[in-house]
C-alpha cells in the first residue's frame, strides 16, 4: 500500500523547496525583485507536508525498502533541522504514551502547580518552543555522553510513573554508540545547512529568520492540536478533522490524526478509506480546531477518562 513513487516525488519537491529557500531566493530572485520575498510564505507553510513525510519515514511508510526509507528519512529530517533518530524516538514514544497525562502538554495537576505556572511552560512550547528544542538537539548532540544522559532521561519523563520504561528506552536508542554517531552526523549536517543559509542571505538574514520562526510556530502549534482536550486512557485517542480533499492530500492527510493513531500501520494514502470504514466523526475543521489550544492549560481533573 506504500506509494513509493508518489512519496519520492513529494520528497524531491521538499528538497527543491529548501534549495530555493537557502540559495535561489537570496542569490538569484531577491536581487532582481524584492517582491520575491513573498515566496517565503509558501516556503514556510511547506513545513507541514515536510514533517508529514518525515513522519511517514518514522513509521517505515515512506519507501518499501527499510534502508532506503531510513536514508531518505534522514535527509528529510536534516532539512527539517533535527536528527532523524531524535524525531523517530520522540514520535514513537508519543504513540507509546498517548492519552496519558504525562504526554499531554496542556494537562497539569492543580495539587502540584498553579495554572499560571503551567501556562509559563505551556505557551512557549505551543508557540514555537517544541520545534526549537528539536532543532537545538542538532547542536546539543555533540555534548559528552555523560552530560546528555540526564538531559535525555528528563526529556522522556524520568520520574513519572506513567512513563514506565520510556526513559530507559530513549537512553538506549539515542545514546547507543551507533545511534549517537548517526545523530551527531545528522546534527552537524543540519547546523551546516542552517549556517550556510544565513551566510548566503547576508544582510537580508532577518527575512530568513522570520521564515524559520514561522516554521517553528507552525510545527509546534499543530503538534498537540489533535489531542488537546481529548479523553485520557485510550492509546488510540486522537481528533480527526475536516479538510477539503485537495488540501488534505497536500498535507498527507495530517487532519486524520485520530485514524492514524487507531491504525498506525497504515500509510497516509490509506487513511481516508480507513476513516470511512471506521465511520469516525470529525471534531471540526483543521483550520479551526487547533486554535482551541489558546485556551491554555487544563487541570487533569477536568478531562474524562476512557477505557482502552
The major sheet is characterized as: 2 strands, parallel
Would you count the extended β strands for me? 2
Rg, Å, rounded: 20 Å
How big a fraction of the residues is strand?
under 5%
The proportion of residues forming helix, as a percent range, comes to 55-70%
**SSE pattern:** HHHHHEHHHHHHHHE
Can you tell me the residue ranges where pLDDT is under 50 for at least 5 consecutive residues? none
Morphology call: globular
Helix and strand content put the structural class at mainly alpha
Number of helices: 13
Spatial sequence of strands, sheet with the most strands: 1-2
In summary, what is this structure?
This protein has 13 helices and 2 strands. With 308 residues, the chain is mainly α. α5 (84-97) runs antiparallel to α8.
Kindly describe this structure.
By secondary structure, the protein is mainly alpha-helical. α6 crosses α10. The relative contact order is 0.14. Strands 1-2 form a two-stranded parallel sheet. The longest helix is centred in the N-terminal third of the chain and has 26 residues.
Which features characterize this protein?
308 residues, mainly alpha
Task: Please describe the topology of this protein.
Layout: H1 4-29, H2 40-45, H3 47-58, H4 66-80, H5 84-97, E1 107-108, H6 115-140, H7 145-155, H8 166-175, H9 177-201, H10 205-223, H11 245-250, H12 257-262, H13 271-278, E2 298-299
Parallel strand pairs: 1-2
Helix pairs in contact: 1-9, 3-4, 4-9, 5-8, 6-9, 6-10, 7-8, 9-10
